[in-house]
What we know:
Helix content is 21%, strand content 31%. It is of the alpha+beta class. The protein has one domain (50-219): Cyclic Phosphodiesterase, Chain: A, CATH 3.90.1140.
Amino acid sequence: MDGLFTRTNDLLKPMSGLTAALLRAPSRLSARRAHRRHAAFGPVPVHPQATDRLFFAVLPDAETAGQIAERTARWRRDHGLRGKPRKAEQLHIKLCHVDDLAGAPSEAMIDALAERASALSMPAFRVEFDRVMSFSNGAFVLSGDESTIGLEVLQQRLSDALDPSPRPARRFVPHVTLLRDQRRIAEQPVERIGWTAREVVLVHSLLGQTTHRHLARLPLLQT
């Protein structure tokens, strides 16, 4: 496909019965900062037959991902957490959950998503996080405040590009999930860590296999 998106994986099994429902991204999410803190997020519901998940995300560069993984090991030890940390290559900021599928996505579906997302226009920007906390669903996350505004703007523009129809707003809290644990940790400051977001990635997750495949990349504008 021509356009801004770069395909990164052509070894995908075909899937028949592509429908508009499979191409719909979540509705527009609210950027209201007053409702961001301490959000009670639950996990994305999984269809009983679902084996694969598609979502758009911002990924840390390899060096920063390694630093986050190293710090996670320390935070896990300091707080007495037992959950298994995510691997450095799995760390991400989820922008839009596209769909859960019973089988790998078809190339037609990937191309359609890429075409919609190519309408996104936004310059590269700095991403920074300066606190850790637990969500009510057990996710222990890296979070932030003023330094995550760029992510809120990016999520809103991507959501609008994928689905421009007016819909009720939903909350979006930029974060990186580090692990999951039954123990809840109150929000607390940590040493700031960040990187420059230069692209949005369409991620194919194999549910239950801790495997992520990067299907396409949308570079942000370079300033």
